[in-house]
Design brief:
The protein has 116 residues and is mainly α. 72% of the residues lie in helices and 0% in strands. The chain has one domain.
Length: 116
Amino acid sequence: MFIVPKNTDLLLTEAAGENLYLKLIEQINKDFNLANEAIDLALSSTPDELKLQLHEKIYRLIQYKFAEYLNLLYIIDVSEEEIKKLDGSDLVILAEQVAFLILKREWQKVWFRNKY
């Protein structure tokens, strides 16, 4: 049964523990490319690098390319309800929270594809 990790670090640790970390990176790259917002994460990226790059990309999208940001969320299939629950008063924190929601959804896709 799929159990949602509580934070980004636990999610990335679980992905590495199940030997699915590279698949997670591939899935993120694939979905960002589908949204025409390439992130180009290297397969050699450490979890900290992945977290930082994803956070920065989301921050820039929210700040400068909001329509593309919304399109990305749609393509990745991030829950609209979860996005609406976030407090958007601090853009840096919002970008970090959205990055976690994206990672959570991408991890869910990779996990299910591996199990079934």
